[in-house]
Amino acid sequence: MKIKFILLVFFSIWLALIVRVFFLAVESNSYYTNLSIRNTIKHEKIAPVRGTIVDKKNRPLAINKLGFKISLAPHLKSKKNLKQFNEEIDNLMNLLPFLNKKKMLKNYKKKDSYYNHSFIDIVHFIPYEDLMPVYSILNLRENLLISSAPKRYYPYKNIAAHIIGYVSRANKKDINRDKLLELIGYTGKTGLEKYYNSYLQGIPGKRKIKVNAKNLEIEELMYENADEDRKLTLSLDIELQEYITDLFEGKVGAVVVMDVNGSILSAGSFPNYDLNIFVSGMSYKMYDDLSSSLDHPFTNKLINGLYPPGSSIKPMLGLLYISTDLSTKWGVDCRSSLPLGGRIFRCWKKKGHRKTDIVKAIRESCDDFFYKGSLVVGNRKMSAGLKRYGFSKKTGIDLPNEFIGVVPSRDWKRRKYNKIWSIGETANMSIGQGDFLTTPLQIAQQTALMATAKLPTPHLAYKIGDKLYKTQLKDVLNEKELEQLPTIQKAMYQVCNNPHGTATQYLHSKVVIAGKTGTAQVVAIKQDIEKRKLEHEMAYYSRSHAWFTTYGPFKNPQYVVMVMVEHGGHGGHAAGSIVSNIYNKLLELKYIKK
């Protein structure tokens, strides 16, 4: 019995071995054949070269500098290969002494593992002219791999920085969102570089190669070019942009020059910064200085700066007034103060404007007219109308992370603070104060609406590749508003041309323009103060923001020019000269013809 049992076990083991050999030799043949092919046939992706950004006259704004990267073979830090590793590093330092040895070691250590069989990038970029003298020497070394590596470069440095944006090395979050970035290494972080990142980065090429057991290439079996070096043409004129940057030297704020159909010719947020520091890297001190500045240079004030619009809102509200509950003949007797809700609402003019209708109210910026008008029209109609015009919404510009601002209302206050709306807040809203917040670009967009009765979608792209960017115009005004719009246009004309206009004395434009000034308080004035301080007597960060938004030529509106100077005081005084110079430059550059 024991002998039978032993024979049975012996037979079972042999049977299992025979079955396993059959499976390995016959049934698994196709599996291991495929595995063998994968071991000898290698598929590679070819990183595309990032596309360029140019202005409307084909001047380069974002390009790629030619250079190289240096990669080192993996597994060289093992005891067996450590001598080779040190030799390679020392040789690099002898030939290229400007390299950062500590950084090279850190880059290698981060990627070196038993599971990585690819060369490791230890130097991400060396300019062409620096590497070429030693290229032939380094290229002969078996453990080194030199490959092309373009680097983003911004020729105009700080000009239009917030518009163009910048690229920098992709982080883990970026790579998880787009696996292609693991190959490319860089991605757009802000501005147009981010908004059009998918287009600009292109599509990788492909290679199919045969390699040996040492992972060395034997033969190229297939090559497919990358779809790369795509061009993005902007509507910007960099010459005008440079000119406006000089005009804004020492000032903080924003500028928009836009044709009435939404195409932006120039736009700036100030102060700005050199885009190249984000590609090449900056010191901790430089970053701290920029990020801690009270003037917020990293903030794109065009779309992310939220400000009370002040009196720049009066043309839009005025149109609502005379299109709903008030007529063009309705007026007030401005005595400079209005008791309301337990406080005094003052007009900026100490002795008042006396008898005032809608045209005079906009021309001379009479607060009392708008206070009293708001009590007739009411907050619900005011907020609903302004939202219909485009406030508290994105303008739709081709830039990332645009803010929408706030048009305050009863419902908004209840949702946000769970509090009841007061009549004083309606009066405050009527002069663009209180919780009312807009972006400079929204004011520019609204000015185009007042000029042409069409609401444009602002855009910076002129052509994406060979495809023209399609402009969009919306009809947001009702029939009554279209009838009354000429009255508002007449008032805006008088702001800039009538002897009593709030901007007239500050202008020297060769183009006949229409517009509206605004002085938006940033610090509340106490009720018991009889004599207000003049703007220049106040501490800088307590001064009002200065707005001046315009369109021209008046009879044939072509361009909107909007200027906002932070803590600039009176709109006409702070921005009138800047606006005039911009229109004169538009004439010089032949964008406007007399």
Characterization of this structure:
With 594 residues, this protein is α+β, with helices and mostly antiparallel strands. It folds into 2 domains: 67-149, Alpha-Beta Plaits (2-Layer Sandwich); 238-588, 3-Layer(aba) Sandwich (Beta-lactamase), CATH 3.40.710.10. 39% of the residues lie in helices and 21% in strands. It is built from 23 helices and 25 strands. Strands 7-3-2-12-20-21 form a 6-stranded mixed β-sheet, with no helix packed on it. A 5-stranded antiparallel β-sheet has the order 14-13-25-24-23, sandwiched between helices. The radius of gyration is 33 Å and the shape is elongated. The protein starts with a helix and ends in a 6-residue tail after the last helix.
> What's the overall geometry?
elongated
Which second-level CATH architecture of the largest domain applies? 3-Layer(aba) Sandwich
Low-confidence stretches: none
CATH homologous superfamily title of the largest domain: DD-peptidase/beta-lactamase superfamily
